[in-house]
Design goal:
Layout: H1 20-31, H2 41-63, H3 70-92, H4 114-127, H5 130-147, H6 159-169, H7 174-188, H8 196-210
Length: about 220
């Protein structure tokens, strides 16, 4: 049975109408949604291109046994999107864009001091619960800055916001603070596994910040 593309004929002369271009365009638009491009766009782009190529071939191979027509292309499209969804879910997990906006102390067990957060972090670390250890240690770091009035207490503040604000008062540690916030986000929102090294990095930075004096704000345009 011969079949090649849109408008081809079966061997008995009956026309086959498979809207391959329309189906491929639908797949193209679905595959290029922003959620699939949050991380490592290079490999994802290559995956999209490969799937588009396979889609075209699959329509040619599958449409005829299925009887041709738009139903064959739709079946192939749905199967390919299902496979892609499973691959991307296993690689990146659920989209976390909204979660990244969560406040650093959201879900914490009531107001706690920096010392209490440090103790909780150390207890989690002793059990090997590195994700919870990282979470509590980041909270201890920020709470410590609040207790020293480097930061003013503010509900809903994210790790990124805390790092940016603290970096202005502690410019020598601004880069380390930004790196710590990124590390916390990557671990807390499921994109990177926590480990002892991440916990130690935050704990060491917490100690360094405790020994660092903030830079006074400039008065009258001069440098304090």
């Amino acid at each position: 049975m011969g079949f090649r593309g849109e408008g081809a004929l079966l061997t008995d002369g009956a026309p086959v109408d498979v809207p391959r271009d329309a189906a491929r365009e639908a797949a193209h638009e679905e595959l290029r949604k922003a959620v699939y491009h949050q991380n490592e766009p290079g490999p994802v782009e290559r995956l999209v291109d490969w799937i588009e190529e396979q889609f075209g071939r699959a329509v040619d191979d599958v449409a005829s046994p299925l009887g041709g027509g738009g139903h064959a292309a739709l079946v192939v499209l749905l199967l390919l999107l299902l496979v892609l969804g499973v691959v991307l879910w296993r690689r990146y997990g659920a989209p976390r864009r909204a979660a990244r906006a969560s406040g650093l102390f959201t879900g914490a067990q009531g107001p706690r001091s920096a010392a209490q957060h440090r103790a909780d972090a150390a207890a989690h670390a002793a059990r090997g619960d590195w994700e919870d250890a990282v979470r509590e240690q980041m909270r201890a770091l920020v709470r410590g800055l609040e207790e020293r009035t480097v930061l003013s207490p503010r509900p809903g503040r994210t790790a990124d916001e805390a790092a940016a604000e603290a970096g202005r008062a502690l410019p020598d540690q601004a880069r380390e603070l930004a790196s710590a916030a990124r590390l916390f986000d990557d671990i807390a929102f499921g994109e990177r596994p926590a480990d002892e090294r991440a916990y130690r990095l935050l704990a060491d930075l917490d100690q360094t910040l405790g020994r660092t004096r903030p830079v006074p704000a400039a008065v009258g345009g001069g440098t304090a």
